Amino acid sequence: MDKPRIGDGPVTLAHVAERAGVSQMTASRALNGRSGVSAKTRREVVRIATQLGYRVNVAARKLSNGRSRIIAVLAPDLTNQFIGQVLIGAGEAARKVDYEMLVYTLFDESRRSHDEVLRLLQQFADGLIAILPRGANDYLQALYAANMPIVMLDHRGEFAALPTIASNHYEGATVAMRHLIELGHARIGFLTGPDEPGAAADRLLAYQHVLAQHGIRVDPQLISQGDFTQRGGFEAARRLLALKRPPSAIFAVNDMAAFGALDAIKDAGLSVPHDISLIGFDDIPMAAQSHPPLTTVRQPLVWMGRSAVNTLLAQINGIDVASPRVVLPTELVVRGTTATMRVRERVS
Amino acid sequence: MDKPRIGDGPVTLAHVAERAGVSQMTASRALNGRSGVSAKTRREVVRIATQLGYRVNVAARKLSNGRSRIIAVLAPDLTNQFIGQVLIGAGEAARKVDYEMLVYTLFDESRRSHDEVLRLLQQFADGLIAILPRGANDYLQALYAANMPIVMLDHRGEFAALPTIASNHYEGATVAMRHLIELGHARIGFLTGPDEPGAAADRLLAYQHVLAQHGIRVDPQLISQGDFTQRGGFEAARRLLALKRPPSAIFAVNDMAAFGALDAIKDAGLSVPHDISLIGFDDIPMAAQSHPPLTTVRQPLVWMGRSAVNTLLAQINGIDVASPRVVLPTELVVRGTTATMRVRERVS
DNA sequence: TTGAAAGCGCTAACAG
DNA sequence: CTGTTAGCGCTTTCAA
Predict the structure, then answer these.
(1) d(CA B211, CA B291)
(2) Nucleotides in chain D with any atom closer than 7 Å to protein CB
(3) Which first-to-last residue range defines the signal peptide (chains A, B) (predicted)?
(4) How many CB pairs lie under 8 A apart between chains A and B?
(5) Distance CA B119 to C1' D7 in A
(6) Which residues of A touch B129 (CB under 8 A)?
(7) Mind listing the pLDDT tens digit for each residue in B243-292?
(8) Containing structural domain, residue A33
(9) Could you write out the DSSP letters of every residue in A279-342?
């Protein structure tokens, strides 16, 4: 009967306090689990608050306290599964400890200065997880200067002091390459991204190193440039297939490029993995859905999201983050696009 | 020289007012473009605010005013491009009129009641765009009761009074079917989603109607059930291909299912569009990236996002929304997966 | 253990 | 046109 009716406006702490016959402060303390309240009073306050359906007003608390129990995520793009997975991990981790997560997306079109955005986020969130688009170095300066807890995702280079959650690209790519080599492949193509330093460069490096370690010459012709997109992977793979001596296996810098390669290979009338083995990187959800399902290197995306939140919460709570750079392990996921190299039977 | 140094804490209205030698109210009025300030004073205040790098504190304004100039989006899932596109449109539209957009994601795992979520959103946002997962009817009740401006995305059924932005599924599917029929196809398969009322059902209905209109019997065998996923589309298409008389064209309930079908068709050794035509629905970005690129029915996703924001802003500003349901047109996008039916030459 | 006062940053309402 | 007062809902600080 005492349910707050819509239209009465939200129930405030004052309502609860009055109803419980105590001061606002006592009610506040009781509800926040602070000490200095008798067990009996606390029980009563909590009971009434529950009954009334009371919820703290985060705007008010933020204003008074500086704390909202909200963490913000700055994301460049919401149309890719990579980021989606990270957000799942981050969201779950946040909500588990009674924080909320809100996502702010960057768009080229919206003319917002870094400053404006960060100030806004700072005004309602207690901390920020930043996933920057490649080449958004202009943001780094602002983030570095921002006076709030921040964790970056897979960042390196300038401002390396910014706490970062990354995964081990080099190691992952190494394991992928060894897998191909164990399957008997020696002529292995690599589909790159744009020629920039970063995660993709690590993967390329591992490709080259593993080949070298196995006494296989790195043939520049086998390195074909794409751009992380399916279309880019398609074109890059097609160039590889057009070679006089095409590769018997292709390692794509990421899953989307691998899907493009899959298209290109099928289009050339070849079969995966019978004629050509293919391996991706990331293990986005779609990787398990293609036909055949994609062998790939799993980045622990959900875990990375969780880890980012936990690192951020540590910062928020004033705990010194031991390492400014957490590197999580990758894992080879063997599915249907890699197989033992078959002996060429066809007469070329 | 007068740049606010980080660490001094953010510049507040009081700072600006003091510096300009006016009261806070005058400063507030000047900065908010309210009347009652001389042009000269206003200029001066604005100048100083700019120089100091002043930004309103949204938490404070929300508390005082009830308005934050933030709109919230409730999204079930961030790993699909469909929602990503809607968010692009919404974000752009919001930022164009100096609003900000924040996204809150639902996760099954996080035990948050509808009430909790809506209350939170209400506390910092001026309005809400709700994209509900299928079957989240429990949320509807809460949304309906919530005392805040709300716009739904492609909702119908109960609580039809909730303002909704939708697109014309029936019409889109009709155009798609006519396209196939004009290409000479008569035996056309349909890949459904789960058997529920809603957008997918409209598309199926159009499929059936167009066939009937052209005097083609609707063969139940040609309707194969999937689940909106690539894997589901794959399996559903495979069943169609295994028929004694397989279809010469397939219409998939959405693009993801179409991609699965594409895999299945290729896997069966058939070629698209040479042997089988294929058409999807949605026109997510990936549709243009597959090989061949997917012919599909475009939902104006970005436009829907924009439209949702504009409808919401109207509500926020107290303008009565004329129609509680805006239905946007769809458009056939002919790409590479549909072609004239070839005369069967193979002897079965 | 409890409460009263003051203030976070802003704006509505009323006064000059 | 400009300023003063009060208050949004909460928590800190200080006093009882």
Answers:
(1) 28
(2) 1-5, 7-13
(3) none
(4) 151
(5) 22
(6) none
(7) 999 999 999 999 999 999 999 999 999 999 999 999 999 999 999 999 99
(8) 13-56
(9) EEEE--GGGGTSSSPPEEEEP-HHHHHHHHHHHHHHHHTTPPPS-SEEEE--EEE--SS--PPP
Q: Are residues B24 and B46 in the same domain?
A: yes
A131 and A191 part of one domain: no
d(CA B137, C1' D1) / Å = 54
Cα distances from A65 to residues A34, A58, B59, B62, in angstroms, run 15, 10, 12, 16
Q: What residues form DSSP beta bridges with A148?
A: none
String of b and e for B173-188 (b: at least 16 CB within 10 Å)?
Answer: bbbbbebbbebebeeb
Per the structure, the count of domains in chain B is 3
B133 within 8 A of B193, measured Cβ to Cβ: no
B336 in any annotated domain: no
The CA distance from A347 to the nearest CA of chain B, in Å, is 22
Name the token pair of B223. Answer: 């309707």
Instruction: Say yes or no for a CB contact (<8 Å) between A84 and B79.
Output: yes
- Is B291 in the same domain as B142? no
Distance B200 CA to D4 C1' (A): 61
Tell me whether residues B103 and A103 touch, CB distance under 8 A: yes
CA→C1' distance for B337 and D4 (Å): 72
Specify if A8 maps to a domain.
Answer: no
The answer to whether residue B29 scores a pLDDT higher than 70 is yes
Look-up: residue for tokens 């716009």?
B151
pLDDT tier at B149 (50, 70, 90 boundaries)? Answer: very high
Q: Is the pLDDT of residue A27 over 50?
A: yes
The pTM (predicted TM-score) of the whole model is 0.94
Distance from CA of B123 to the nearest CA of A (A): 6
- For A275, the token pair is 């004629």
With contacts defined as CB-CB under 8 Å, which chain A residues touch B81? 79
Mean pLDDT of B226-231: 96
CA distance A65 to chain B (A): 12
Instruction: State whether the beta carbon of B63 lies below 7 angstroms from any atom of strand D.
Output: yes
Name the nucleotide with the smallest C1'–CA separation from A65.
Answer: D11
Average pLDDT over residues B151-164: 85
> Strand order in A70-75's β-sheet?
A325-328, A164-167, A150-153, A127-130, A70-75, A100-105, B100-105, B70-75, B127-130, B150-153, B164-167, B325-328
Mean pLDDT of chain B, nearest integer: 92
Does strand C come within 7 Å of the CB of A23?
A: yes
Residue B6: the pLDDT is: 43
Q: Please compute the mean of the pLDDT values over residues A281-300 and round it to a whole number.
A: 97
Residue of B7, B62, B102 with shortest CB distance to A103: B102
